[in-house]
Design brief:
By secondary structure, this protein is α+β, with helices and mostly antiparallel strands. It has a single domain, classed as 3-methyladenine DNA Glycosylase, Chain A (Roll). It has four helices and eight strands, in the order H-H-E-E-E-E-E-H-H-E-E-E. Strands 1, 2, 3, 4, 5, 6, 7 and 8 form an eight-stranded antiparallel β-sheet that branches. Helix 3 packs across helix 4.
């Protein structure tokens, strides 16, 4: 499969969030490929989006990678216990990103299971439940702050084109999860699922 080029990410964030559906997120650790098809995303629209970490052009050590050009990883720690993986979009002047909320595991499933069990948090009853949340997929793929700011061209982490393009009729849009603090922005339909 072909790795997505930086040009893919430098477009409107909502479009990138939709077109990432069906693509394959790949993490390579010690030569082992762990991957899954992206099935859920959320778009965060930068300085004008009260739900975004860069709202109001906020610049902190945590958000530093959001100010990289599209095609980099933004990984942050939440609730003092979980990592979340985002794809930076647009340009250095437009700090926007797409949160990868869920993947359907494809390669390295045994290793993903081992990683989830090692955290003491694996209650996955099925393969799809192994990575059906942003924290779960980070645990399963070994994504942590060491991935923050990495280019998505590899070799440690990258996204490949899917085997087929997801058509608009297959995409369900709804409000984002866990952003009630963002006022009216909490109702924006920027969560996308296959």
């Amino acid at each position: 499969m072909r790795v997505l080029s930086p040009r893919f990410y430098k477009r409107e964030t909502e479009i990138v969030a939709r077109e990432l559906l069906g693509c394959r997120l790949v993490r390579v650790i010690d030569g082992v490929r762990l991957s899954g098809r992206i099935v859920e995303t959320e778009a965060y629209l930068g300085i004008d989006d009260p739900a975004c970490h860069t709202f109001g052009d906020r610049r902190t050590p945590r958000t530093k990678s959001m100010y990289l050009p599209g095609g980099h990883a933004y990984v942050y720690f939440i609730y003092g216990m979980h990592f979340c993986f985002n794809v930076v979009t647009r340009t250095e002047r437009e700090p926007e990103a797409v949160l990868i909320r869920a993947i359907q595991p494809e390669e390295g499933i045994d290793e993903m299971m081992r990683r989830r069990k090692a955290t003491g948090k694996s209650k996955a009853k099925s393969v799809s439940a192994l990575t059906n949340g942003p924290a779960k997929l980070c645990q399963a793929l070994g994504i942590d702050r060491s991935c923050d700011g990495l280019t998505l061209e590899g070799p440690e982490i990258f996204i490949e084109r899917g085997s087929r393009k997801i058509v608009e009729s297959e995409i369900h849009a709804s409000p984002r999860v866990g952003v009630d603090y963002a006022g009216v922005a909490a109702t924006w339909p920027l969560r996308f699922r296959v």
